[in-house]
């Protein structure tokens, strides 16, 4: 027998009260689980929104719009695309991070947003695998290593030899500090021991213009634009950064074929949801993207946009992200790039 504020309290009554509280808690949790299950089973019953952290008209927008029509048919609901541009995709990522974890707001992100930004920004407001649940990787995006036509080389090895004899005299352009077009040449420099000077631009268009004009001599660029200008003779494509040759540049060897062992660097596109999104909802979305990517027309159109269809489900995509992050973090550290 215990003494309470208003007199003796029976230990039996105390145990009964505790037992009732436990039952209520279990009941509440059970109802929550049933509600979550019901929500997952009924998903989706309203439009799904894809958030992109970049302006309309760019590569991510093209990718989202290419997939969205077929995705609507698979899900049976409208799929909307929303743009939240700013800070290298960070603004869009924050928008999704704070959204309700119900599968109706998801993000299309790329290499920069998911694996480069965590190393590039010292005060990044999100954690890739802490604040998001991977849904599906949908594409890989190889790049081409290009030179101005007046550079007197016709192979990547010739370029390495030419540049090694001219340390600091060869400039390479990029779309800006810390982006993939900056870090891929940095990885190339590390692999070859070359010394080239980085010239950052505000976007790839002005960098490409100066490459064709000879203001910079070297650049890593996405395949469609690279292939188009290579065929016109405005640039020379020396190698592609993927493990396999690219159909748009069939006569251009891979960097590995050109003699640099183990050099395989490609960007990626993938979809993620806010942390806490029910597993069944993630599974439904993941399977929907798998179905979309089995469509021959979609796959062919993706290739023309410079992205190779490369589906990974939720679990494998999470493992992929975990493996990519240290690789790109090392490239950021080597480049010395930092943004805040």
Description:
The structure is a single chain. With 340 residues, the protein is α/β, with parallel strands linked by helices. The chain folds into two domains: 48-140 and 267-335, Bordetella uptake gene, domain 1 (D-Maltodextrin-Binding Protein, domain 2, 3-Layer(aba) Sandwich), CATH 3.40.190.150; 143-240, D-Maltodextrin-Binding Protein, domain 2. It is built from eleven helices and 13 strands. It has a six-stranded mixed β-sheet, with helices on both faces. The longest helix has 31 residues, at 11-41. The chain is globular.
**Distinct helical segment count:** 11
> How is the quaternary structure best described?
single chain
Main sheet?
6 strands, mixed
Proportion of residues in extended strands:
15-25%
Question: What's the overall average pLDDT, rounded?
Answer: 89
Number of domains: 2
Q: How are the strands of the biggest sheet laid out side by side?
A: 4-3-5-12-6-13
Helical content, roughly? Answer: 40-55%
| Class of secondary structure makeup | alpha/beta
Please outline what is shown here.
The protein is an alpha/beta fold and 340 residues long. The protein has helices at residues 11-41, 59-75, 90-97, 111-120, 156-164, 180-192, 204-213, 223-231, 279-293, 296-304, 314-335; strands at 2-4, 7-9, 48-52, 79-83, 105-110, 132-141, 143-147, 171-174, 197-200, 218-222, 236-240, 267-274, 308-312. The protein folds into 2 domains: 48-140 and 267-335, Bordetella uptake gene, domain 1 (D-Maltodextrin-Binding Protein, domain 2); 143-240, 3-Layer(aba) Sandwich (D-Maltodextrin-Binding Protein, domain 2), CATH 3.40.190.
